[in-house]
Specification:
single chain, 319 residues, alpha+beta, YojJ-like (1, 2 domains
Length: 319
């Protein structure tokens, strides 16, 4: 049997395996980039739907459907490229900027612990003081273009530096801080705001935080200067989080260490839910008061009509 295994066959087999491995890596990283953009996902869903419809039409012999899908596949791809040119360009840019090893993956365990502790302590202070902040942590996709829009720092991440940067009135407070590895790469950086609709209570920081998460795999922490509430933006989505949960979230998202760090489920800060509940109760109370006033008015009106006014003569007659 060994005589059938030749060097040329082994080389051919290795070539096939390497070819499959390269394609798997390309598809894996392409999907990681694509999934962050909702419109890009819709493009690929549409293309996949047409391919499946074409295959089914061929199997079942639906000639008209087959002609339509093949025509779409011939000319529709060109139309998609023209219509969705900005999204396609964004995907290609992100693919070119992505790297196999992120700056976070090169950190030691102690460096990771210190990084997260300093960030959490800083966010806790900023939240308690209601100081607005925007902190972005770079992962696989490079943020070099956005670092160039701000002021280069290249300093260690510390609670004191992060907290002082966002103090109102300081030169660097207006903008984002970008963290590469365990270093503050830049402050006062500019991010493109999201085009998605957001409630009016969310300001420019929240829009910028979601915007950068749509074009990169970074993790962004946003502190509201009005309420002090903390939000995190990742993969085009933003959610509220308590400062107690922040450390566990960063461990899980940045270093995939959910098992190594026991995630305690504290009570989530539900300030916004409480405000909404209070507003709902006030509206309900107002509604009840309006209904009560309406009933009183109707009763008063009916009383004036139905109850006759007794005259003096009637009393005399009764006597």
């Amino acid at each position: 049997m060994l005589e059938f295994i030749t060097l040329s066959k082994l080389l051919k087999f290795g070539q096939v395996l390497l070819d499959i491995l390269i394609m798997a890596i390309i598809i894996h990283y392409a999907l990681r980039i694509i999934r962050n953009n909702a419109r890009t996902i819709q493009i690929f869903k549409g293309i996949l739907f047409v391919l499946v419809a074409n295959l089914i039409a061929k199997i079942l012999g639906f000639t008209t459907v087959q002609i339509f899908t093949e025509t779409f596949m011939t000319w529709g791809i060109l139309a998609i490229i023209i219509i969705f040119q900005p999204e396609i360009r964004s995907v290609l840019e992100r693919l070119g900027k992505s790297s196999v090893f992120s700056t976070q993956s090169t950190l030691t365990v102690s460096q990771r612990e210190r990084l997260i502790n300093e960030i959490v302590e800083s966010v806790t202070q900023l939240s308690s003081e209601k100081t607005g902040a925007l902190i972005t942590i770079e992962q696989d996709i490079s943020l070099a273009d956005y670092i160039n829009t701000g002021t280069s720092l290249n300093s260690e991440v510390s609670k004191e530096i992060l907290s002082s940067i966002f103090v109102v009135g300081t030169p660097l407070h207006d903008g984002a801080v970008i963290i590469q590895g365990n270093r503050i790469a830049a402050a006062s950086a500019y991010f493109p705001p999201t085009d998605e609709w957001l409630p009016s209570k969310y300001g420019a920081r929240h829009r910028a935080g979601i915007g950068i998460s749509e074009v990169s795999d970074s993790v962004t922490i946003i502190v509201s200067e009005e309420t002090g509430l903390v939000s995190v933006a990742h993969e085009g989505r933003m959610s509220l989080i308590s400062v107690k949960e922040l450390a566990a979230y960063l461990h899980k998202t940045l270093f995939a260490q959910e098992e190594e760090h026991e995630v305690v489920k504290p009570e989530v800060d539900k300030s916004e839910e409480k405000v909404s509940q209070i507003e709902k109760e006030i509206r309900q109370q107002q509604k009840e008061e309006m209904e009560t006033n309406r009933i009183i008015k109707q009763f008063s009106k009916s009383s004036q009509i139905d109850l006759p006014v007794k005259k003096e003569g009637d009393h005399d007659g009764e006597r």
